[in-house]
Design a protein that fits this description.
about 350 residues, alpha+beta, Lipocalin, 2 domains, eight-stranded antiparallel β-barrel, two-stranded antiparallel ribbon, 13 helices, 10 strands, about 35% helix, globular
Length: about 350
């Protein structure tokens, strides 16, 4: 009995944290929503049309009469974000998935519960594994709450309803109790003096500040996603693409990628050949890739991972290649579809002599 009591207490704490709310911690009462806004919120949520997702997830995520599933229908994110969620469901919640089933679920969620290009681009540094010092200037309090545990890129690459942002914080408190002390609890007394702009001090609890900002800045329903989802289609990328890139320490690269479609679902194979402008070292690779949500290229050639963003006209792509073990080793790369017009990709010299 002495050995099980601490476990029981921890379990009860997790359950309370998961299903509780932050209402008791709020310093100010929530602003009442007008009836019209409440009616709109009732219509939020993306119906799940995949039989496999419903079959594998319905034991924990119940579905309503509109085929909206709890948690799943009220969140959008990148392929990497959904991949992390699937891994967590398997490791912590015991979901049984074959690798092929996991890939199919990931593809469906990334395509139908994903991001529009305008939403994904600001967070591109996260999935491209860029080593940058990113500053989120829209709300420094929210940034300080979130970056205590992970990068801000994981936050701005998500879209959720207000209730879903609240549940996300509850999940953090249940699964990771230290997050309460690292990020969610107030450090010191509430501010009493006006801020730098002279406005009255914001005495809300850090969690309530974060929820209010995130649910406004990154809501589930956006004009960008509504427009993209209505016209999204699998990209047609077959053909030859000119490569221009730059690798730190080695200089510019130039080459050619031949892309071949494997079916109509966004799967491709690639044959890549490029040469370093300095030293004339040549590299040849063969790879495979998937394009999620109509524009998010995720590929692998030998030991190199590829993260690219394809433009709407299927003529350009930009992104980064990097190795799986060392994210700081990578190539900034640009692809241009080869057609009948000449393409200037750059030059390998540090200067060009001007003719008189």
């Amino acid at each position: 009995m002495k050995r099980t009591l601490p476990l029981l207490c921890l379990t009860l704490f997790a359950v309370v944290a998961l299903f509780g709310t932050t209402a008791g911690l709020a310093q100010q009462p929530p602003t009442a929503q007008p009836p019209a806004a409440e009616d709109e919120k009732k219509d939020e949520g993306i119906p799940v049309a995949s039989d496999l997702v419903r079959q594998k997830c319905v034991s924990c995520h119940r579905a309503d009469d509109k085929n909206r599933m709890t948690r799943i229908s009220f969140r959008r994110t990148t392929p990497e974000g959904w991949e992390e969620t699937i891994k967590r469901m398997v490791t912590l919640n015991g979901v049984k998935l074959e690798p092929a089933e996991a890939r199919e679920i990931l593809r469906y969620l990334a395509d139908h519960h994903g991001l529009a290009p305008e939403e994904a681009q600001p967070a591109a540094f996260e999935v491209e594994r860029r080593m940058i010092d990113y500053k989120y200037t829209a709300d420094k309090d929210t940034e300080q709450t979130c970056i205590k545990c992970h990068s801000m890129g994981r936050v701005i690459s998500q879209r959720r309803t207000k209730e879903e942002w609240e549940l996300l914080i509850a999940m953090h408190r249940g699964y990771y109790p230290l997050s309460d002390f690292q990020a969610f609890r107030r450090s010191g007394p509430p501010p009493r003096e006006p801020d730098e702009s002279g406005r009255p001090p914001d005495t809300r609890h850090p969690m309530d500040k974060a929820i209010a900002h995130l649910s406004t800045a990154f809501p589930l329903v956006t004009p960008e996603w509504s427009a993209w989802a209505a016209t999204m289609r699998p990209p047609r990328l077959d053909g030859r693409w000119a490569i221009a890139g730059y690798e730190t320490g080695k200089g510019p690269i130039f080459g050619l990628m031949t892309i071949a479609a494997q079916g109509d679902a966004g799967d491709f194979t690639t044959d890549t050949k490029f040469t370093y402008g300095h030293g004339n070292q040549s590299v040849a690779r063969h790879g495979r890739s998937i394009v999620y949500t109509g524009f998010q290229w995720r590929g692998k050639s030998d030991d190199v991972r590829e993260v690219l963003f394809v433009d709407r006209d299927w003529r350009h792509a930009r992104g980064r290649w990097f190795t799986g073990a060392y994210d700081e080793l990578g190539v900034d790369v640009r692809l241009e579809r080869v057609g009948g017009d000449p393409i200037l990709l750059g030059d390998a010299e540090t200067r060009i002599k001007a003719e008189n």
